[in-house]
Amino acid sequence: MTSFWTKRRVVVTGGRGFLGAYVVERLKASGAPAEQVLVPSRRAYDLRQLDAVERMYHDMRPDIVIHLAAVVGGIGANRERPGEFFYDNLLMGVQLMEVARRQGIEKFVGIGTVCAYPKITPIPFKESDLWNGYPEETNAPYGLAKKMLLVQGQAYRQQYGFRSIYLLPVNLYGPRDNFDPSGSHVIPALIKKCVDARDSGAAEIVVWGDGSPTREFLYVEDAAEGIVLASERYDSPEPVNLGSAFEISIKDLVTLIAEATGFRGKITWDTSQPNGQPRRKLDTSRAEQEFGFQSRTDFRAGLTRTVEWYERQRTTAAARV
């Protein structure tokens, strides 16, 4: 715990979402009084509307804003709704930061995405590589909209002295993730697919792509810790990666999830569907140097916890029915 958080009111946009709920918990564990950690609901404050943003700041009077609210999803959702992913994410970020500047808040914490990196980036991804190419096409509208938080924050710091930081978390996973196939990311989507196939006795599962791309995954509790540490200790215009520095191919990931869920059938690769970005692995040295963050959760252990949580949720839901 630290006295830093005892004196500050913090707004966490998206604080009821997957990552946001963990950030709220981490803030409280770090010493923030519960009544000073504020989470605006979408029903009360539609952050795409300027008047709602202004009303939120007036009502909640934050010292610090951690902006996590976003329209997110996997490859399928990004392909189906690119306009929505661009417009909603861009508008929320631009308006939240502009009104924060006008209100003179102490600090704005913008949360970006690994999707902001160019499609072809040297491994490991360094923050200096962000502008060396165009993002992978299927998630470029989302990645570019989120990257504008970095541009806006740097411009506001230069002109107004506004304190904004920008963090780039890699793919997240963990308990309480979104397992709805219409919007889930790769790990929850594969867990659900394997469990459904196991329980129905299906002989195979079909997975998009050819299995060759690699991904880095960060356990959600570790991500929340990194965000809270940066919010407290970091104050620079330069972006910072948040990751685990662990890289795994999608093929190996599917094998691990099949083992963890007890699915013993065939894995078929649908190569007519996109692979997404070829490789993802971050250089995480800046986060360690600047605010002492290192991920602590072993990937297999985190994956096991995620599968166990999902199995418990299914059991509970079945019991209710």
Structure description:
By secondary structure, this protein is α/β, with parallel strands linked by helices. 44% of the residues lie in helices and 14% in strands. The chain contains ten helices and eleven strands. The chain has helices at 18-29, 50-60, 75-80, 82-103, 140-160, 186-200, 220-233, 250-261, 285-291, 299-320; strands at residues 10-13, 37-38, 64-67, 107-111, 164-169, 171-173, 204-208, 214-219, 240-242, 247-249, 266-270. Helix 1 packs across helix 7, helix 2 (50-60) packs across helix 4 (82-103) and helix 6 crosses helix 8 (250-261). The longest helix is centred in the first third of the chain and has 22 residues, at 82-103. The N and C termini lie far apart (42 Å). The model has no long low-confidence stretch (mean pLDDT 95).
Give a brief outline of the structure.
The chain has 321 residues and is an alpha/beta fold.
